[in-house]
Design a protein that fits this description.
By secondary structure, the protein is α+β, with helices and mostly antiparallel strands. It has 6 helices and 16 strands.
Amino acid sequence: MKRKLLPILLTAVLLAACGSRPSPNKEKPSGDSAASESSPSDPAVSEISITDTDETEDPGRDAALQAVQGTWYDINGDTVLTISNDRMTVTENGHEYTYRFRLAEKYGRYVIQPYESSDHFGVMSDIEIEDGRLTAYDEVLDGDGHNYKFVSEETLAAEKEIRDYSKDLPKTIDSSEITEFELSFTIGSGRTYGTEDWYDGSYSWTIMKTDDGSYEMDMRGMGSSYVMFQFRGEVSEEYVRGLADLIREEGIAGWNGYYKTNNVSLPPYSLNVTYASGEELRILAGGNAADTCVFDLPKLLDYADRQDLGREW
């Protein structure tokens, strides 16, 4: 009888010991148990929590978590992040969305990821933690996504400040013989530049004088994921000389050397013209400085339309 009881007693002892040992992979509670099991919209826990399933202390992760606390403003739009402990509230277009997140290492730096691998931040990617910034992008495949660049309120004004890198170049052009012409711009994101019948998209217009003295022109418009139109072919010397006359009549050379920009990620516009005399016309604007165009862009586009560009609108 004693021999039968001994294995049973040993088994009971082993089961009790195993039941009292915490699993090494079990998540540490984030604050009290009620907070750790709450939905993303519940108030954040009262203490900074471990945001990884690895229970090993990581001073780098802890420091990164402390560094991202607070309110962050997207300099490329109006999105605001408010981070408290391991909760992040995204305010966008008048709506608020709250997520629980974790920190993970990616490409040698920490990133903010949804707490559960099956979750996501809407269409926003993982958020990379850079020096004084948080950056992300829209995960879209069939169009132009938004690039997020979040900064603190203290640095927001400096990021948006327009800087002047203009050069003191001649403000008159004597030659009327163009050898190279290049114009690029983007319509959209609230920019129309006074155009009426040009769709949103990115445009480029180039003219090159070839070795035999003829002129090759290329002009195209690109939508977010398709070609809107493209012209490529020879144009006459009279057509190019008329373009040079228009540039002179509009006084565009008075802006020669203009270059202003800021840290906002919006498409630039540029105009570069080289003449047979060696004279050059250089105009560039980026970021918010490109919200308006210093020369009359619609007049240049009206002239471009004198050539059949193959536009169907």
